[in-house]
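Assess this one:

_____
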Amino acid sequence: MKSKMKTPAMPVGLPKKNTMKTKIKKYLVSLPLVAVLLTASQHCLGQEVTPLTQSVPDMAKRAEELKSLRWGMFICWSFSTFSKKEWTPGINDVAFFKATECDTDQWVKTAKEAEMGYVLFLAKHHDGFCLWDTKTTDRKVTKAPLGRDVLAELRKSCDKYGIKLAIYFSEAEWRSPGGTDDPSASEPKKRPQGGKDPELKKAQLQELLTQYGPVEYIWFDHAAGDGGLSHEETIKWCKKFQPGCFTGFNHGDRKGALIRIGERGKPGPLNAAGTDFLAAEFTYPILPKHRGGADWFYSLPAHDGLCLPAQKLYDDYLGAVKYGNIFSINVGPDYNGKLREIDVKTLREVGDMIRNPPPQVTAPVPLSQGKTATAPSSWNEEYGPDKAVDGEKWTRWAAASGSLSGWLEVDLGKDEQVDHVQIIEQSHPRTKEFTVEYRVGDTWKELARGTTIGENRMINFPPVTARHVRLNILKASGVPTIDEFQVFAPTAK
């Protein structure tokens, strides 16, 4: 729905000017919130927005505070919960959101039990359905059967359990002018795309940053566009209301953004060449690969037994801690607004692991680890062949863009006896046909052959003496990408 707001309207029930001044004086005892409260009141009164203090937040210090949260719960609950699809365009009636119950205490209590530091909440997806009581549109949860301000309830639950709050926000909507569901469009568009309504975007961000307390960071989804307000302008607008709030974008121009957003990402070093992020976040769904239903939202009752293992989540938690990242594991409340039993159980298990770390299993060190690796091409320096033999499962080699084959060769430095290799293709399983080979003079001899590799594959073969060993990917469905290719000596039986 196109916003008709040229300037934000005065919220219903706003106290008179003198009353607001009195209330601001009352809040002076809580200095960290004063700037937010005064900013909100001034803008609502139609005055120029100026912070209470001219001091600039120390964002490097804020980054350390954000990193200390370590990991959190990403909650996606919207139209897509009920459509069983990732994207849900074409919905005109907010009653499509059929939920009549919601248990934010259960969400946040589970986060606390999992040793999480924050909750990242989907406030609005591309469909424009708002999970808070916005004044900008009737396309909101308080007009749906639930009839409750979910974000307000979540804020109270976060405060109750001592958990911080972050917000996911789709920059553009399909119903805005020029979008897929633009009511004024003469012909429907073939594929979903966002429209542009910068005033709507600004008014909604103002509400989120002035009415729901401190926000640690905003996870901006650029999949439907920027909504007509550039990322540079978006960052400046958000800082008017909460100067210490981080803003990050999953796609598009990231200049000026101080947090790196990693959709379907994994732990890794903070910065690549040419970037100046102060913090890095990564996220992926708790649901493993499955057929039918959505990934980021509640899927189907038939999938209620599917969940990634606690050990994987714990391993990536350790990776986040190692690199100073924050890790947002995505869960989707069901039709009744509750987390699945299997999600709660799994997250509690991770919490137990964090409180009582399991003993580390000492594995044999690969002969290839840290040795020289070569390949015919690489995506860029960040994805060079050395990343496949560095012993870090969070880094990887990727061939050049457009490649559908490639190879990784490891020089062990001297002749060694070898009898098995480990191949990890966890990030992007694409291999369709491959061989493992070793070099004798100028000739490559085959040790093993296969079709798919998958997340983690160990391949054994009769012992041979070799210095050069390679993984030869003969056919792939996309750019070959290998997390680890390690060569091992025979182990004692």
